[in-house]
Structures are given as structure tokens and as C-alpha cells.
Amino acid sequence: MEPLTNWAGNITFGARQVLRPRSLDEAREQIAAATKLRVLGSGHSFNRLADTDGDLISLAGLPRTVQIAPDRATVRVDGGIRYGDLAARLHAEGLALHNMASLPHISVAGAVATATHGSGVGNGNLATAVAGVEIIRADGELVTLTRGDADFPGSVAALGALGAVVALTLDVQPAFELRQYVYEGLPATSVRAELPLILADGYSVSLFTRWTSADVDQVWLKRLEPMSGADFHGATLADGPRHPVPGMPAGNCTEQGGVPGPWHERLPHFRMEFTPSSGEELQSEWHVPLSRAGDAIDAVAQVRERVADVLQVSEVRTIAADELWMSPNYRRDSLALHFTWIADTEAVLPVVADVEKVLAPLDPRPHLGKIFTSAPSLPRSADFAALVRRFDPAGKFRNDFLDRLLG
After folding, report:
1. Which domain holds residue 219?
2. Is the dihedral of CA 359, 340, 155, 204 positive or negative?
3. What sequence ranges are listed for the domain FAD-binding PCMH-type (predicted)?
4. 119-174: pLDDT as tens digits
5. Which of 82, 264, 265, 286 is buried deepest, with most CB atoms within 10 A?
């Protein structure tokens, strides 16, 4: 096999081969026969969560499944489908997901497994939409868990540790339209005095900064209702389309300027038909209590110069609390501090440690698909580790990353 890397190219997988089943039965046979295995999604993790010295298995070749329930409240999808493809099919049926991440290119199962998210003070991460999960265990047995089952809260954002997720049932709602606005130059005085109002002033709100000053470079608002003016808490409406990463083409981004459009063409920052973001990057993200949002901004400002030296852009967002054991938003409304770093691991890792140190008093929880150096403190990790041992007693789906995480 030719060397296989993740999307960013910072991880070269150690797998012997990639299994590519074309049917559910074939997937069950291959999983049962393997000795060590990890599931390969769309490759948007930035650490060795998906790595293995055994085999990788890709579910992208499974038949596409989009089964809308008769009551139109849920949809059952296969484990290999990507959000952009699912969203277009749902919208054609007059339905929508509650939220999407910045990139529509990621696989649904992979994003759910790492509690990946969009933004919005009232919006849970993408895993909170899951009503049912179908998993092939290490012995090839197909197991289904649904909301209300005792093991369900540990089986959704499960990091691929329980087995291969071959299907998910997701909550859906009627399709809706959004308007997207970009404002520039949000003053530091507004950030200090009005941050809770700013973060709640839209269906989804993202603040982009390069930490070169206390001001915020861009505010991305996704709103159900139109804005009433060109001023937003002291920021000025952009005079044309913008990209959050300086120097990148704005044409890669979803439409701005307040033009109403379908939910799936406004919730992501990037268009499905273009290469997402820049690719030449590393990423980290930490979630802190939303009630400490101002303290978190002040903490990172302590190492602003160190951060700016290796940063492309930083995004600040909100996520509502949930009950999922391995979610960084477990029982905590959260502020997410996302960092898109330059593609230089040696230069970035010391700064990652700096950020973790200044955020430590705020009990930060990392996004487990991104780069972090300190051991995460997750309240239900012991319960999750016990669940993993029950599902996979021989550790077929374990790897070094999970061993360090779970003990």
C-alpha cells in the first residue's frame, strides 16, 4: 500500500492495508476476521485517533442510505455518507439538520464520533442529533442502540472505540432559510462588555481573530432574520465576500451579504464544491464553560504574541450542553476556542502547551480529533472505558491514542 495520510498530511497512517467493503455483510466478515482495526473516515482528524498498526476499514463504499421515517422526524443514513451529500438530499425533501460544521466535506459518522460541531448558544454539537446508532462490534455482531438505552450516551461520540458505525438515525426538522453576514473590526471594548450578547445574536455566530490585537477581525453571523444596519456592536459590515483565513479566495466560502439561502448552503463556512479551507494546516480546539467566556479570551491574550507567530486564524464559537459521555460539552454550555495553525508541528506544539497552561484554571476540554498535549479531564471517561471493555474486550479497535486516553 502506498503511504496513506490524513487530509492535512501531518499524519502518515501505519496500517498494513485499507479494507473497502461494498456491503454490510462484507464489512461484518472483514471486521470479524481482523486482528487490529480502526475505521477511516474522511481523514479530518489531526492526531493519531484513527491510526493503527493493523488494518484500516473505509465505509465510503457502502451503499448510500438516506431513509426518511414516515413521520419525517428522523432519517437513517449509512456510515460513509458526507454531510454535504446528505444535506442536499434532505433539503430536496423539505427537511434539515439542526446544524452543520464549518466543512460539509466530512463524514457524518466521523464527525459524530468526535462530537464535532457548528455554533449557536441553543445548538448542541452534531452528535446530539443522533437518535440511534448501529455498530459492528469486534466479533462481527451488529448492535443497535437508541436514545433511552442505558449505554446510548456512551455510544454516540465514541471515538470509534466500540466498533464500526455503519448506520445512524438522525433527528431532522423542516427546512429553513438563513442569511449570512460578515462584519469586520469588532472592537475589544465590545468584546469585553457585550460578549454574551454578541455570541447570542444569531442562529450561529463565529468570531475570527489572529490574536494580533484585542480586536476581533471578523464576525460571521448566520441569522433567520435580516440585520437592520451596517453596524454590529461597533464592527462594520464587510463590503464584499470574505474568507476567514487571510489570503484565501473568498469564492470558496458560502454566500454572504445577507442573501437568504437554504440552511445547508449557509451553515457551513465553505462550499461543498470547493477544496475546504487551505489544507496546509494543523488544528487545535479547547472547550471551556460559556460562563467563563470573557476569562478565556483574557487567558489566551496572555500568550497572544506566541499564538500569533504560528497561527493562520482562530475561531470562537458556542455549543449547547449535552449528555454524551465523551463530548467536551457534557453537561456544560461551552465556548470553543479553535486554532488553525501553520503546518509546522515542531513550532506549533510548544504553543499548544502554552495555551493549555493559561486555560488550565478554566477546566478546558479538548476536541479529541485535534492536537492537544495535556491529558483531558472528561467526567465520564471511566464509564466510557468500562463500556469499551464490554464491547471490545480484546481491544481490536484500540490503538496507542485510545490507550493513553482511557488507560
Report:
1. 177-366
2. positive
3. 11-175
4. 999 999 999 999 999 999 999 999 999 999 999 999 999 999 999 999 999 999 99
5. 286
